[in-house]
Task: structure prediction
Amino acid sequence: MNTLMENVESMKIGSVDFVSPDEIRVLLDLEAPSDVALNAGTPRPFPRVNSYVLIPSEGGFLVAQIEWITIERAQFPKRRGMQDFGILDLPYPLRKMSVIPIGVLRENGVTYEFSRGIELFPTVGDPVLLPTQNQLCNIVESGSNRRVHIGVSPLAGNANVAIDPDRLFGRHLAVLGNTGSGKSCSVAGLVRWSIEAAQKEKKVDALSTRFIILDPNGEYAKAFSDMEKANVRIYGVEKKKDVEQLRIPLWLWNTAEWVSFAQASGKAQKPTLVQALRCVRDGQIEIAPTDRVEMRRFLRTLVTTSILEYNSGNPWGNFPKPKSFFMKIKKWKEGMQTSDICTEDELSSLQKLNAYLDELIAPREGQYADYEFGREEIKRLISLLRAAHHTFGGSDTDVLPIDADRPRPFTGEDFLRSLEANATLMNTSEYVETMLMRIKTLLSDAKLKPVISTEDDITLEKWLFQYIYSSNDSGPSITIIDLSLLPAEVVYIITAVMARITLEALQRYRRVHDGETLPTILIMEEAHTFIKRYRDDVENVDASAMCTRVFEKIAREGRKFGLGLVLSSQRPSELSPTVLSQCNTFLLHRLSNDRDQELVSKLVPDNLRALLRELPSLPARNAILLGWASELPVMVRMNLLHDEFRPRSDDPNYWNTWIGSEEKVDWKIISDAWQNNSEEQVQELQTNEEDLSFLE
Result:
């Protein structure tokens, strides 16, 4: 191999004319080619804007990226009507270009190593060189563990572009671009190429890869159909061929998700809802409870409520809080009904409790009574309630679950009964009617019932195994959650539950396995819909904002638990700034909106923003890779996916439809399936997709 300096003369195209920390101007030689260079021994395309040139320095070459190329004409133009002996514009027009220093390329045996940063700037007069193909490859392919090949770089002689999956997925990735720019194909390709690279490396089918794709438009159903050795599971609202029934049971929803769905107000509805969830999760629901069991439940609820009231300070707070607490204990007094089956001890405890309630109520019955309670009074009330609860067979451990959001199974009917009972106890029945109606509507929705139902035997263990982790023996795991037919009122909730449970499962995996993580990749398509900006100064958080907060938590904490986040969006300006700021790698396809371009321009250093000027004109499949996974921003022509394995997001083919033969559209089959009028017709629609290809 020739030394560094031996190639200088043959590869020289100009010399340094101006030097500053962020810009170097080059005066091109008169003999420098305009399109193809032949002086390197083999034809080499002359550098274009955003491609690379070299400047010799100590121990290697300074690598610079071309920002602009121009021609500087003579000050005195050709005189009109004068021949000038055939010589045009004396002196000859000068060609100049501006380059931006980005790093250093050092010789390492028979190869080169590229590193970002500049230690020593060139001086005026230093030669500027056209890099060889080998040098271009070492610039673009720099870095270790480049295991997954994703495409080639058209600006670097089609040098291979490969990435380190630890860098790409470990610190979150954002794939941004307009509709039709190829971002969905890039996402599907990254999954496919990563699995193929791992299989090639290990040379066996048993891989521990986990990809979870949240697919709002049902685009990925066929994207991995050819990967026979992979464990590809598709879950959708409607069960059909190759699509399993999506199940996100009610008991997986936490308090925040229930509150956002029910639109529970903070004063009356939310406390009632939270208390009902706590009660229904305790696992003590019996089909035919006795009077003694009913009293134990009643006392258990009173203990819980009184503790909550004490901790919140309501009994001695500002008006009307003390009065509201007074009305509650009057209601409690009315519910203290004794029974003939009560034992002597049970009867004695109830009598003591009733007597003390009378002591609390009597002084506050007047028209101008002072409703405020003392702390010692409430402490004694809690003590008597606990004593009565213990007498009826209760204990401190069954008052409340340790974690109110612990995913313990319960049915929708049990939850409704708990809501109504707690509303009565907390004297909020008149305030929860609208909330109850929303929940009843949810439970009665025939389309949603299979999704949220708890009638089957699914357990938490089984659910985690199906949706997050499968055995290595079954091959690489790809889980696709088709959200396309979910009603708008629950799509945010289902998405949030899926993402949150994944994060919490990995948190607990690390805790159980002494800090070891279970690397999992969560992909969110149409991220601008589910991870949008929201106002954090509002009292009630709606389902959309709640969903965004879940992904914000994943973006902040997911990395240390092995959860990598991949976002795909066509409107980065509408994404949550918190989530976007936590993405360390960006794959940018064509972006034409000014706001989106301005946003992504802030993601790279000032001296490298010239590359982003190509965003509005990037052809399909081409993208700019920048961030943690790439040593420097580089343009990539992504590997080609076959048509049958691309996500189904192509533009409609209007012309061929207009001029083609007339399609027979049987709207009855569609309407019956839509309305669930006939199970046979539903099955016909599901199993005869070939005859309904015109719908695609």
